[in-house]
Amino acid sequence: MSPDSSRSRNIFEPLDCSFVADLWGERFGISPSAFSGYVFFRKANSVWAANKSILPRLSYEAIGMRIMNLKDRPWKPTTSALQLFGQYATKNIIHLDSTDARAFMEGRTLAVESDAKSGYVVVFYGGEVLGCGLYSRGVLASQIPKERRLASAEHRENRSLR
């Protein structure tokens, strides 16, 4: 691989807002207006969102917030992005009670009946977005990143015995 080709993979390429709005609208029913005020960039397999301020022509490691991964099919939204944009979702959403919400935030898999389509869903508790789940045939797998998960009761108990 030439130095030029490795550098070009690390460049933030501007994305048209409609690219992001169409994907999120199709999966989650989010209106394109939810994305106004943001600009979008692609770097390798990730899409990043930033506010519409003018960015100087510099080399960046990151711009704004990573909102989705395009590496796999289907694309995967980040938990942070769902916590920002998920409040506007009108489909493929799952509401949990307090017991299931705790288990979800611990990273567990739950039996949940929903009319959501198989795939990534926006998970709510008490009107607030918790994050991303993967739903299929009555099973909801938490996609909360390990570093953001709550400690389980068993884990807390084991730590207190030390």
Q: Give the strand content.
A: 25-35%
The major beta sheet can be summarized as:
5 strands, antiparallel
Low-confidence stretches: 1-8
The CA-CA distance between the termini, in Å, is: 51 Å
**For the largest beta sheet, what order do the strands appear in spatially?**
1-2-3-4-5
Average pLDDT level = 87
Q: In angstroms, what is the radius of gyration?
A: 18 Å
| Helix/strand/pairing category | alpha+beta
Key attributes of the depicted protein:
5 helices; 162 residues; disordered N terminus; globular; alpha+beta
Any overview of this molecule?
It contains 5 helices and 10 strands; from the N terminus they run H-E-H-E-E-E-E-H-E-H-E-E-E-E-H. The longest helix has 12 residues, at 17-28. The model is unreliable at 1-8 (pLDDT under 50). It has helices at 3-8, 17-28, 79-85, 98-105, 153-160; strands at 13-15, 38-43, 46-51, 65-69, 76-77, 93-96, 109-111, 119-125, 128-136, 139-142. It is globular. By secondary structure, it is an alpha+beta fold. The protein has a 5-stranded antiparallel β-sheet. A 5-stranded mixed β-sheet has the order 6-8-9-10-7.
Topology:
Blueprint: H1 3-8, E1 13-15, H2 17-28, E2 38-43, E3 46-51, E4 65-69, E5 76-77, H3 79-85, E6 93-96, H4 98-105, E7 109-111, E8 119-125, E9 128-136, E10 139-142, H5 153-160
Parallel strand pairs: 6-8
Antiparallel strand pairs: 1-2, 2-3, 3-4, 4-5, 7-10, 8-9, 9-10
Describe the structure in brief:
With about 160 residues, the protein is an alpha+beta fold. The protein contains 5 helices and 10 strands.
